[in-house]
Task: structure prediction
Amino acid sequence: KKWVYLFKEGNANMKELLGGKGANLAEMTNIGLPVPGGFTVTTEACTEYYNQDKKLSDEIVGQINEYMSILEKECEKEFGNADNPLLVSVRSGAKFSMPGMMDTILNLGLNDETVAGIAKATDNERFAFDSYRRFIQMFGDVVQEIGKEKFDHVLEAAKEKNGYKDDTELTADDLKEIVVAYKKIVKDETGEDFPLDPKEQLLMAIEAVFRSWNNNRAISYRNMNDIPHDIGTAVNVQSMVYGNMGNDCGTGVAFTRNPATGQKKLFGEFLINAQGEDVVAGIRTPKDINELQDIMPEVFKQFHETAELLEKHYKDMQDIEFTIEKSKLFMLQTRTGKRTAAAAICAAVEMVEEGLITKEEAILRLDPIALDQLLHPTFEAAALSAAELLATGLPASPGAATGKIYFTAEAVCTAVANGEETLLVRKETSPEDIEGMYAANGILTARGGMTSHAAVVARGMGKCCVAGCESIKVDEAAKQFTVGNQIFKEGDYISLNGSTGSVYKGGIKTVTPELSGHFGQIMAWSDEFRTLKVRTNADTPKDASVAVRFGAEGIGLCRTEHMFFDEHRLPSVRRMILSESKEQREKALAEILPMQKEDFIGIYKAMEGRPVTVRLLDPPLHEFLPKETKDIEALAADMGFDVEDMITIIQGLEEFNPMLGHRGCRLAITYPEIAEMQTRAIMEAAIEVKEKDGFNVIPEIMIPLIGINEELTYLEKVVRNTAELIKTEKKSDIEYLVGTMMEIPRATLIADQIAETAEFFSFGTNDLTQMTYGFSRDDAGKFITDYKDKGILPNDPFQSIDVEGVGKLVEMGVTLGRKTKPDLKIGVCGEHGGDPKSIFFFHSVGLSYVSCSPFRVPIARLAAAQAAL
Ligand code: PEP
Ligand code: MG
Result:
C-alpha cells in the first residue's frame, strides 16, 4: 500500500488522503509554483498508526525513508550531511483545517554536526545555533513532551546574566551554551540523550504529529466544528526555507481579496528578516503587503502574479503564506480565505462578473445564516474583544444590542422617551410586554425556549433577543438581576448578542451594516433558481412592509392573537375571554372587530395584493390573563364583577397544561362567535381594500390546531357561512380560501381526510415538534443544552427540523394531503421556515412555500436557491 506521496504525486482533490495542506501543496507544485520540495504521509498512515497500537509499521517506515532519499536528490542536499545538510519542517494537516490545534516541528535534521554546515552555508553562526536551540526546544516540547517552560527558564536566565532585553541580543556563543543546557534538560527529563540521528528525529516527529491528532484541544475543536474523530491527520515533510537569514529575506501572509469587505486588492502583511511565527507572535509590527513593492519590486511582482494565478486556479479567494529566502519567493501554503458575510457576497458577485465562477457557484458558496450579519447590527470588533462575558442563553433572535437594563415594559418606555438606550430584562415575557419589547434595543429573558413568546415576537420585530438564560436570576420586584455574585440594577449597562446567546457586562459599541448592491444581486440570482416560494410571518403592517422590502412573496402566517398584545386592546380581549355570557362576549367582540379590520386593511395594503394567510385566534389563554392584583381589580371594575368572582373566573380558566389546553380551534368550537367576528374582519377588510385600493386580495383563512377532521369541518362551516353572508351583504364576488394548520401529529396522520375540506395546509412545526417530542416549547430551554452537551440531541429540534421524526410526519402529511388533492398548496410557518437546513428538507418533500420572520426572508431565499441547485 502507498502510504507516502511526493508533492508532485498529489492534487487538490486528494484532501481526504493528503489533508488540506498536503493536497494544496501538491496542487501548487503541479501548477509550477515555487514550493519547497517535500512529501506527505497520508491520513491512512495515521489511522494505521492507531490501529497498530501507536506504532509505525515497517512498511510505512520503509516508505518514509525511501521518499526522504528522493527528497535529498531533488534538493541536492543530504539529511545529516555536515557539509550540505537538508533540514525539514514536519507539519500536521487534516482534511478539515484545524488551525493551531496540532503540532509542528521546524528545523528537523539539525545536530552537532549539521549545525556547523548550516553556519557555513549561511555564513551566519548565530543563525545556525539559534535555529538549533529552537529545534531542541520544539522537539523537546512536542515530541518528548517536556514542558516548554523548562527551556524558557534557561533562555531567560542567559538573558538576565548578560543584561539583555531581547532574544536578538544573544550572541552565537551564548546560544552555544544554551544548546548544551537544553540538551541537558532533555537528558534529565527523558533519561536519554537528545536524538542526533536525523532519521530517528524524523520518525519520532511524525509519530508525535499523529499523536497530536488526539490531544485535548484537537478533540474539543473537532467536537465544536462537527469534524469526525476517526479520519486522522496527514503529515507534511518539507525542506526548510528561511525568511530570517538577512534583509533580503522575509515572510508573510496575504489574502487575494480583502476578507472584511471583499475588495479586489491584495490584503495582508509581511516582515523582513523574520520567520512565520514572528508574524503571528506580534513581537514586531508587520508592514502592509503592498509595501513589499517598494522594498523588493521583483519579488512583489512575482507574488502578485502568483496570487492571481492561485485565485484563478481555485476560483476562490485564497489565504496564502509565503517566505522569501535570499530574494527568492517560496509558497508555503494556500487555502480558501475565511471572510465576513459582506466580503463573501462582494467577492462572489465580482467573481461572476469577472467570469471566474458561474452564478450557481456564487449562490452555492454563500452561507445563508451569515446573511444575518448584514441585516442586523453587530458589535464593533475591538469593543467586543475587551468585553466581559457574563452568561450565555439561547440565541433567540439575532443581532447585537446594548443599553441600560429595565425590568418592566413601562420602565423601558419611559426611559426611551427620555432618550435612553434600553434593554428589557424579564423572567419571561408576556403580552403586556409588547410595547417595551418594541421600544427596547434588545430583550433578555431567564426562561423560555427558541419558540417562546419572547423569541417569536422578537424575531418578528427583527429585534435582538437572548432567551432562556438560566444562569441569571431576575428579581423584577427588586429591579435587579444577579449572575453568580454580581448584581445588576436598573439603569446598569449590559450588552446582548442574539446570534450567539452571549450576555456581556457593560455597553459595547454596535455598528449597523448597510445593504450593498451586491446583496441585491445575490437575491436576484437566488430568485432565478429557487422553486420554493418565500413568505413571511407578519402581524403588523410595519412587519409586512419590512418583509416585502426583503422580498417576501406573501404572508404565510398572520397570528391574530399577536394583534392583541397591546395595552389598549388587552382589556377587550380579556373581557372576551372572561365573559360569562354570549351577550357579554359579543359586546367585547364588537369592540375588537373594528380594530381587527383596521389591522387587516393595513396588512393587505402593505402586501399590495400578495397572498395573505390569516390564522384564527390561537392564544394559549394563560398568556392573556391578568396576573397582578391591580390588573385584576381594574378588570373586575370594568366588567362589573366582584373582585372575588373575577378571581374565581380566572382560576376556573387556569390550566395545568395551557399549551395542550383550551387553545386554537378548540376555543372557536366553544365560542364560534370569535371565529365569526374574525372572519368578518378578514372579509370586510379584503373587500374594502379591493374596492378602494384596487388590490386583488384573496384572503386565506387558516384554522389552527386541528387534530380531528370534524374540528375542521365544523369550523369551516362557521367560516364559510360568515364569509358568504358578508359577500352578500357587500355584494362582492371576492374569492377566499379556507385551510388549516398541520401542527398536531394526529392531523398529519389523517391528512387525506383533512384535505377533503382544507384548501391549503400550513405546517406549524413549532407545535408539531413540541407534541412529537413531548417537549414543552416554553420549558425545553432548560434541558436542551444538556441534551446537546451529552450528545443525546445533535441540535435543538425547535431550531432545525428533526428530519427523521417530525420530518417523517411532515412528509406523510404532504403525501396523504396530495393523494386527496394533487395540487394542494402546502407551506410551513413554524420557525423552521427560516432555517437553511430545514429549508433543504422542505424543498425535498415538495412544499410550495416556507414562511418566516421578515428578517429571515433573504436567508430563506438564498437557502431555497441552494436547495434547488
Ligand atoms: C407553529 O406551531 O409552528 C406555529 C406556527 O404556530 P404558533 O407558533 O403560533 O403556535
Ligand atoms: Mg402552533
Residues 451, 557, 559, 618, 743, 764-767, 829-830 surround phosphoenolpyruvate (ligand 1) (CB under 6 Å). The mean pLDDT is 92. Residues 582-607 form the longest helix (26 residues).
